[in-house]
């Protein structure tokens, strides 16, 4: 695991393969097939597909290895994106702490301007912070926060519009970190290149499920993806390749 320290710089250079074991896990995130942008969704869940207990408690379903993987993803991407529900419920920092590497740009999808000015992800630590709000919405946030107004439909901002706005601002590798609703929306819209699903060896038995997509009538209509499996100590990383279903912004 000592080989990680060099990975963030090597990853961005694109000159040589990453040292083992990192090339197999993170190499596919170097380049995308649509719109010159790579989008990876990340979700941690129990064996029975739950992301939180019935009370909403979710810290921590994943163990140290799964959390370290999340921080490695943050260290490799240009921007990490969460929805307003996760921002309000968890008040995350969205920084890189468990491994070495640079902090990503922090992005919140906040269509109605609900984000608190005291949110930890808005900390003025020298890292760029972007709030994606509905057109005409100007939340009362501290100076230095980039507020980007985007059209809403049904109270939501389309994933394709979000990716286009981030790409226009020079952000090419994007991590959709959560919550489950946000990851599901990007998946349903065909806006993910990869999905990193980390399964912890626990059974909650009840509570909030992870991915939720529009209903289908038959099993043969299910979304299918090629998959690679990686062990993270006692957890399992399911790396799902969705690039064949990824759509360009204009088609999303």
What does it look like?
This protein is of the alpha/beta class. The chain has a single domain, classed as 3-Layer(aba) Sandwich (Dihydrofolate Reductase, subunit A). It contains six helices and eleven strands. It has helices spanning 7-13, 22-26, 64-76, 84-90, 159-168, 180-188; strands at 38-45, 50-52, 79-83, 105-109, 129-134, 146-150, 173-178, 194-199, 208-209, 226-232, 235-241. Strands 6-5-4-3-7-1-8-11-10 form a nine-stranded mixed sheet, sandwiched between helices. A hairpin with a 2-residue loop joins strand 10 and strand 11 (235-241). The longest helix is centred in the first third of the chain and has 13 residues, at 64-76. The model has no long low-confidence stretch (mean pLDDT 93).
Number of helices: 6
H/E series: HHEEHEHEEEHEHEEEE
Please bin the fraction of helical residues. 10-25%
Do you know the CATH topology? Dihydrofolate Reductase, subunit A
Q: Classify the secondary structure makeup into a structural class.
A: alpha/beta
Strand line-up across the major sheet: 6-5-4-3-7-1-8-11-10
Give the full name of the CATH homologous superfamily: Dihydrofolate Reductase, subunit A
Rg over alpha carbons: 17 Å
Residue fraction in strands? 15-25%
Which key features would you list for this structure?
two-stranded antiparallel sheet; 6 helices; 252 residues; Dihydrofolate Reductase, subunit A; 24% strand; nine-stranded mixed sheet; alpha/beta; 20% helix
Topology:
Elements: H1 7-13, H2 22-26, E1 38-45, E2 50-52, H3 64-76, E3 79-83, H4 84-90, E4 105-109, E5 129-134, E6 146-150, H5 159-168, E7 173-178, H6 180-188, E8 194-199, E9 208-209, E10 226-232, E11 235-241
Parallel strand pairs: 1-7, 1-8, 3-4, 3-7, 4-5, 5-6
Antiparallel strand pairs: 2-9, 8-11, 10-11
């Amino acid at each position: 695991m000592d080989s990680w320290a060099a990975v963030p710089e090597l990853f961005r250079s694109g000159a040589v393969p990453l040292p083992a074991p990192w090339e197999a896990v993170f190499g596919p995130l170097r380049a995308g097939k649509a719109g010159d942008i790579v989008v990876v969704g990340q979700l941690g869940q129990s064996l029975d597909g739950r992301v939180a207990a019935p009370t909403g408690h979710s810290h921590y379903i994943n163990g140290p290895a799964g959390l370290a993987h999340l921080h490695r993803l943050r260290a490799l991407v240009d921007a990490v994106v969460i929805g307003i529900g996760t921002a309000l419920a968890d008040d995350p920092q969205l920084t890189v702490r468990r491994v070495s590497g640079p902090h990503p740009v922090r992005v919140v999808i906040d269509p109605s301007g609900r984000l608190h000015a005291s949110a930890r992800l808005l900390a003025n630590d020298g890292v760029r912070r972007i709030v994606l709000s509905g057109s005409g919405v100007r939340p009362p946030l501290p100076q230095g926060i980039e507020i980007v107004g985007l059209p809403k439909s049904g109270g939501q901002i389309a994933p394709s519009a979000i990716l286009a706005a981030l790409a226009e601002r020079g952000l090419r590798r994007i991590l959709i970190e959560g919550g489950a609703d946000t990851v599901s929306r990007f998946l349903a819209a065909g806006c993910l290149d990869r999905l990193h699903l980390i399964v912890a060896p626990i059974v909650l038995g009840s509570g909030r499920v992870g991915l939720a997509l529009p209903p289908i009538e038959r099993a043969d209509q299910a979304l299918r993806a090629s998959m690679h499996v990686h062990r993270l100590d006692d957890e399992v990383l399911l790396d799902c390749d969705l690039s064949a279903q990824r759509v360009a912004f204009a088609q999303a």
